[in-house]
Input
Amino acid sequence: MNKKLNYFSTVKFLSKYILAYKKNYIMFAIGWLFDILLSIFTPIMFAVMIDEIVYYQNVPVFLKISIALVIMILFACIVHFFTQQQYAYLQIMYAFEIKNDLFNAVQYAKAEALTDMQAGDALNTIQSHAFECMVFVIRNIIHTLNNFFALILYIIYIFVIGWQFGLLMLVGIPLSVYATVKFGKVTRKCNDEYNAVYGKYSGWLMEGLSALQDIRLLNAQEVTEKKFIGFQKNLFHRENQNSVIKLSSQNVVQTINFLVQMSVYALCAYYACRGEMTIGVLTIILNFFTNIKGKVIFFSNCFIEAQMRISRIQRVYDLFHLPSEKDWKGKDRLDITDGKIEFHKITFGYKDTQDLFQEFSINIEGGQKVALVGKSGSGKTTLAYMLAGFYKPREGSIAIDGRDISDCSLKSLRQNVGIVQQDVLIFDGTIRSNLLLGKKDASEQEIMEAYERAGLGEFIRSLDDGIDTVIGTKGVGLSGGQKQRIAIARIYLKNPQIIVFDEATSALDNETEALIHDSWKNALVGRTAIVISHRLSSVMMCERTAVIEDGVLLEYGSTKEMLENSNALKTLFAIS
Output
């Protein structure tokens, strides 16, 4: 379980990205520091100008200070423009760096982590919460440090004017800090709960929007609408809680500041009546008190907002620290000659479930076509994913040509093991770009050979733009058979020595399945193949068949002989 972030651990977590652009951040901080110093010196210069005119009628000094003030303000405009340029640059680059690393973390997350991850929550974290990291750095680190420095200077100058005023203004600060910290803890808790609910809502909404047609076919609009309203009410309730807490904190701090303000006004009136305070000094005290009050309110709001941001940054942190495939220890290159596969006494179970396999063993000779059959949930697909390195057995080993796959790099393993699934991945783009997922640097000749051998040639030639025809999201405009042929063409380009077909034809009609089987025959020449299927026609293509039930190998032998003698196989396919 990842650690829970606090203010300082959040700063440490984000420091990697701060250091990457430290020059820009330093220039940005200096720009804002100049603005703050200008806000300190401007009232002092105005006060001196007032006193020089009112009490001393010293016009030359008044003019010199006026000119100096105008020059400072003009220079401040230039600095402010430069500062905003830095901010715009950092806003883009900082968020980009985090989004890039987040996407990378998701790309390489272990299969177990992806099982629990909701796509909507991950999307929201990458797109929205990454920007919160930037806001935290600017507002909760740089602005906080600059404003704290300004607050110290204000208080020091007030003490120079009169220690009574300094003590009076200091009274409200610890009280405001105490109230802010108390409210901040409650805010963090409420915001954690809000983000947890919002993550579930995002995932549910994404799934719902992608399945609108199914919802209509089931007449489930009312059910999903009630679910949507329930999420909205829950989110509204938690958001309202956050708003009430923030307003309560602001009201407490405002009340403390108001009491201090009245005391300062009373003390100013007392000294003014005694003639011990000039108009200029009075101007400085009132201006500085207003600024000090503003800083205290800023710190209060900033701390409350920081707790809300830290809650969102926690989601970023958690996504960063998903268990990663980069921890895979194998580094050797896997070179396959025969394609022999050995599962030797493997024990494996998913998180929070009992073991699916216990000392499971099966050997598949190189170049063989083997069917894995069994009821849903018996572990067939899990074996395929373990062979491709998505899951690791807790005990036992998996070997290809006598090499333990845990000693080999995932890249070389997946170059040699290809999986064709029922739901073929089709991106919104051209047929060419979808085929090149199999081999990004494939030549034109290789691409043409691949789609011809997969039986796509006639279809592609019938299109106006040929292989550069744009196909829609999820392959809109393609039949199930055409999608499967694209998957097979990718396999040709990838050229693995071991191919797994996982329920690849279960959604196709018999005629289309027969055509796909013809494509398979070309694809499987000289390769080891594992066919996972609930359809007898696919099983009959294979030389050997393994019947698996609840993670146990019931029978394994010649497909022809098992169709005649295996009760388990006959029962599974209702063969009399």
In short: The longest helix spans residues 221-273. The mean pLDDT is 81.
